[in-house]
Specification:
By secondary structure, the protein is an alpha+beta fold. The protein has helices spanning 2-38, 107-142, 148-180, 231-240, and strands spanning 46-52, 54-76, 82-87, 94-95, 100-104, 183-185, 190-192, 202-203, 212-227, 244-248, 255-269, 274-281, 293-310, 315-317, 320-327, 330-335, 337-341, 345-350, 357-361, 372-374. The strands form 4 sheets. It has a 6-stranded antiparallel barrel. Strands 6-5-3-8 form a 4-stranded antiparallel sheet, with no helix packed on it. Strands 19-1-20 form a 3-stranded mixed sheet, with no helix packed on it.
Length: 404
């Protein structure tokens, strides 16, 4: 009897498990049917977002990474030996060209200058006396009071003293130049760095460390590289006129300064397959600093009246790129040719016309001719170039232009 009860209990337990499994199965089927009902059934319309194809001017950029470099850098060295008696600049000070940075004790060089001036005065007095004697000899020689040889000797003396005076003048100029070197002036306009020598020290013309390093950072230059494959496009655009270069902040979106391309290097680096370019920036707010790494964008072209769609609308398949274009309550698949694409928008050469509505989401359930329902597409529309120069590039690096 106990064994029969046990069998009955096992049977009841099995029936309960079967009932629970059946209930779960029916519930899962109901949920799936509800989901299909919400989306219109297995063959019902697919919910999508769309955006209008627009016409706008699209800038064509090439991205590079560069190093900021001072336009000019000068290590200010003394040109004469002596004691440094004055330092007339502060570290980090902006100074104009010709500004007196420091002074060396001029006493020795002033004495040499005064000596050269005195020597010239002495020789000029002798020359004046020799000229007077020459005039006398010329008059006496005409009356045969003196010989012609005496007259010629006096004339030679006058010429000798004249040359001596010229030599004295050169010595004065040399002494004046040396004396001027005791005032150390800024050879360029720029910003001073950390001072290397303090007042009271003896400095020499043979010193290599210098008194201070002066850098010109307004304007400032950036040297960056581009792949050698871009060289033909750069040279063609550069030959047509000045090219704008933009420096980007750390977010790779914000433009910190705009400058112009100045030089394309005359050779390609064979080890890296890149070419160097140099741009110059006004740097009004000192946002660029020598030695800094910076991302730059070189504007080489602007596509006028280009047809633009969101990048999300462009799909790729075995036969190339395509988009889904809205046709009433259905979509049609169209093959397109993309000439340029970045993170936010794609420039379409063929396949789409301005005003066409293209699908930007919901592709997993779409096929050519699928029925659709359109949601809010305002957030998916591409931005106009005139409303946001910074936002139009999107976040992250710009993809290279591509021909398809």
């Amino acid at each position: 009897m106990t064994k029969d009860r046990r069998y009955i209990a096992y049977g009841l337990f099995a029936l309960v498990l079967i009932a629970v499994a059946a209930a779960l199965y029916l519930q899962a089927g109901g949920d799936e049917q509800a989901r299909r009902g919400r989306r219109g059934g297995a063959n019902g319309p697919v919910p999508v977002l769309v955006a209008d194809a627009q016409t706008m001017d699209v800038p064509v950029y090439l991205d590079g990474v560069g190093t900021t470099k001072a336009l000019n850098t000068v290590t200010v060295l003394p040109q004469v030996d002596g004691k440094l008696i004055k330092v007339l600049f502060s570290e980090g000070q902006d100074v104009p060209k010709g500004y007196v940075l420091a002074e060396i004790d001029p006493a020795t060089y002033q004495a040499a200058y005064d000596q050269a001036v005195a020597k010239k005065a002495q020789d000029e007095a002798q020359l004046a006396n020799a000229k007077i004697d020459l005039e006398r000899y010329i008059k006496l020689a005409s009356t045969n009071a003196v010989t012609t040889q005496q007259r010629d000797t006096q004339k030679a003396l006058v010429e000798q003293l004249t040359a001596q005076v010229k030599q004295d003048q050169a010595a004065i100029e040399s002494a004046a130049t040396t004396l001027g070197y005791t005032k150390i002036v800024a050879p360029i306009a720029g910003r001073t760095g950390i001072r290397n020598v303090d007042e009271g020290n003896i400095v020499r013309a043979s010193d290599t460390t210098g008194i201070v390093t002066l850098t010109q950072i307004q304007p400032i230059s950036v040297i960056f590289t581009l792949p050698q494959q871009e060289l033909p496009r750069v040279n063609k655009a550069f030959a047509a006129g000045p090219l704008t270069v933009e420096s980007l902040a750390a977010d790779n979106v914000t433009v910190t300064d705009r400058g112009q391309l100045k030089v394309v290097d005359n050779q390609v680096d064979q080890t890296t397959g890149t070419v160097k370019l140099k741009a110059e920036f006004p740097n009004p707010n000192l946002q660029l600093w020598p030695g800094q790494f910076v991302n730059v964008q070189l504007l080489i072209d602007t596509l006028k009246n280009a047809t633009v769609v969101p990048t999300a609308a462009v799909q790729r398949g075995p036969q190339g790129t395509f988009v889904y274009v809205v046709n009433g309550d259905k979509v049609a698949m169209r093959n397109v040719t993309v000439t340029q694409q970045d993170d936010t928008r794609a420039v379409i050469a063929t396949g789409v016309n301005t005003g066409d509505k293209v699908v930007t989401s919901g592709f997993a359930q779409l096929t050519d001719g699928s029925a659709i329902t359109i949601g809010n597409a305002s957030a998916a529309a591409p931005e106009n170039t005139d409303t946001g120069e910074k936002k139009k590039r999107g976040e992250g690096k710009r993809k290279r232009s591509e021909k398809q």
